[in-house]
Amino acid sequence: MTTLQYRRLEKKKFLSDPVLLPVIILLLVFLALFILYPLSMLMTDSVYAGNAYTLYSVEESTEEVKARYQEQGLRDLSVSRRSVLQIPSLEGLTALETYGRAASTTYMGDLLPEVHKGTLVAVDDQRPLLTLQAFPHIFRDYTFRRAFTNTLVLGLITGVCSTLVGLLFAYVDSYVRVRSPLMRRMFGVVSMLPVVSPPFVLSLSMILLFGKGGLVTRQLLGIYDSDVYGLSGIAIVQTMTFFPVCYLMLKGLLKNIDPSMEEASRDMGASRFKVFTTVTLPLLLPGIGNAFLVTFIESVADFANPMLIGGSYDTLATTIYLRITGGSYDTQGAAAMAVVLLMLTVWLFLVQKYYLEAKTAATLTGKASRARMAITDRSVTVPLSTLCMLVSAFVILMYIAIPFGSLFKLWGRDYSLSTRWYEQLFRQDGIKAFRDSFVLSLIASPITALLSMIISYLVVKKKFRGKGFIEFVSILAMAVPGTVLGVGYIRGFSGGVFHSGFLQGLYGTGAILVIVFIVRSLPVGTRSGISALRQIHPSIEESAYDLGAGSGKVFMSVTLPLIKDSFFSGLVTTFVRSITAISAIILLVTPRYLLITTRINEFAEKGSYGIACAYATILILIVYASILLMNLFIKYFGTSKQIREAENVQ
Amino acid sequence: MSSNKGIRLENISKIYTDPKTKKPFYAVKDVSITIEPGAFVTLLGPSGCGKTTTLRMIAGFESPDEGEIFIGDEPVMALTPNKRDTAMVFQSYALFPHYNVFDNVAYGLKIRKLDRHTIREKVMNILDLVEMEGLEARMTNQLSGGQQQRVALARALVVEPSVLLFDEPLSNLDAKLRVTMRTEIRRIQQELGITAVYVTHDQSEAMSLSDQIIIMNQGLIAQMGSPREIYYHPNSEFVADFIGEANFLDGTIKSVSGDDCVMDIAGHELPLPNPKGYPVGQVCRMVVRPEAVRIGTQGPLPCTVTLSCFMGAYHFYHVMLGDMLLKITDDCPVNKHTFQVSDQAFLGFEENCVHIL
Q: How would CATH label the architecture of B7-241?
């Protein structure tokens, strides 16, 4: 069977489209340059130990020796006070061996032990030395080992707790009759808060409420030695931040379980608890695993919370940051750690994406045939909803603490209201911080939204080579912790691409921050774009194509309008994620730019909680406003409603 | 309308890979079709027979692995769908949900960069033709299925393609509307004299619409011909069975004279045309339609009734003729004798209705 003609024809058709190829090439370059390249630089860094050379001769640096060396044709590589002569070829070798000690030892980097002022050294050509030594080295390193175990323990605790709390909420939401409208609203608020909230806001309020000078611990309970810093603090904060993700995931799955299955089980004599353990839970199990892994990855990649509330409990993300910014400036060690962290998250991500997601889809597909009869039994509803209420109240309390923190004169001492923190904020660099954050995020959002829609369109609707690569890389970026990306960018761009000086101007500019924003949000946008596009019947685009429109025209006139909602939400999500981002940014930002999040971090580290809260309050307001704006926009200009109705008619 | 063009497929093959077994197989194999300008041709067959793939290759959505495709005299294989002079009506209508009726129909004209007046005029004319005038401001989700179908048809027609392609356009409509719409489609196609290729698995649609029917099975053309030819002279059991109801009879040739022969069917001798020139003694399979079998108290072939069922317009029987089961529809049964199960009855065949396969 021959498929040659088919290939030839498809290629011809493909090439006859004026926009397709350039767009794909552009995308490939972007993804390769800004995702794959920095990560691969990290990989090489972790195995690249520096340049190695063999030392052949060490002699006193006298005029006579110099002359002799020059006679031998040795190139003078003398750097400042060190005189290093390089052997241009092996021919010089035999001659040299007659002199000196001709010690053929391999040395690395600048570490020439015997070279000091007044010596002449002959070495051969430098060559890169690749070794996996950095890995055993860091694994022997106590700080790293501790950080590694800390990260895993934290991820495990956060993963389990978030999944459990998320499951509780999802179950109550889908199964239990909740009468009070207040509670319903609370569910909505709690599930939206982590989206709105910048990272480490909860850490901040944790310190304010339960820290040494905490409102609850000190003022209300009179505990003077309360310690929120450390594992328990991070775990609580991360659980509160991440459980809504689990809640939303599991809620979606529970909605898909056909109630008839549970009714059948009940009909055959099972108690409610039995129904839950024998029907609901097994059906949900892959989904629970999925939720667990997602939070595990989030927790492992989280930088801001461990940074702020971790105290001496260092995780991989914070350790890497400290290695880079701290005194030691151990880039190879940091790179190796970043590679370990990257491997960990990527591995978990692959398990989650290709194994658990497929399993979830296999057990829970399709829609429930009809609505579920809510449980009204008071012995079930009362304890479960009380538990939910308590958690919700706790979360809301934590968020309320932030604006109050910015309004009190001095937290812990003087609880009278004042605007001094805001005044101070605006007197100092507040305006600039907000402007910089705002402008950079605003630039990143439309680019990301458009880019992710184009990627989804190509991935879902087009056939071409390299499609798998585009999809994989743009989704993979989701698994890359911000810290790792930040280190990758430092290594990859500080000296230009491949240290060649190409694109060197990028490093330290706002452009690189915008690019980081784009890369960090691309997977989210692409994901939502892909799922939105899969809903659109292929024949709609085919008919436009058939009527004479080229790929570019089809995309602009049919595809994009149909996934407008996804585009808008990509726009706002990127904006929100960018303006609240910290992990990668904190490594790349230069004094030229002040960002809100890094300011909050600085002030919180210094203990200036009032002004940190003021920043955070305004940030939350900005984010909340943009989400409101998005919802309004989708409500009035969105297309999903029309499409849904159209599908119903058909 | 623009000049209508014929279509020529020369030895077209399309290979797909089975997603489960990973083995390649022919979805369409060595198909050659010539369609005259202005003809209405139906590709008919069970699902998976390759008819839609063939249509999509004409439109340009799929590229054939072997063969050539011509529209008019132009080879079009390397052209993308937007560069081919075809317009397709999709099974799901594929209307743009974000446009109203007018903008849907005007889409192709806007792509062709016509000026606004011409666009307005053409769209209004075509909406008139499909009897959708006055609804141009509606959103597509405010239309019934039949109306959406008309808009889809108008959208394809308005760009004045040389070839109109239909991909099971009526399968989402209810039975009555299907009948109305297919007469509409035929009327419009004849009015414009446009070349049309129509894919369906519904034989009554194929019969009522087409100048020519192409029956496909497992990627191959099973038979081509006018509806009449295919109904009365199917060339295989598959075609006979697929189009209409069919009874199969086995018999032996007793004698041959020229193009005719005498067939022995369960002891009864029947003179039949013998186009394939089978020799004496050859065991043959024949096809006869249920409405071409007469049942009565007298006749050449005795049989036993095994099912008797009053259907209104006709009475339906199963009878055993020797070891062969025959289905019989006895039209207008009001003044006729009705047989009950296990009754003895007699059969005869209408003239020219028994056909040797």
A: 3-Layer(aba) Sandwich (3.40)
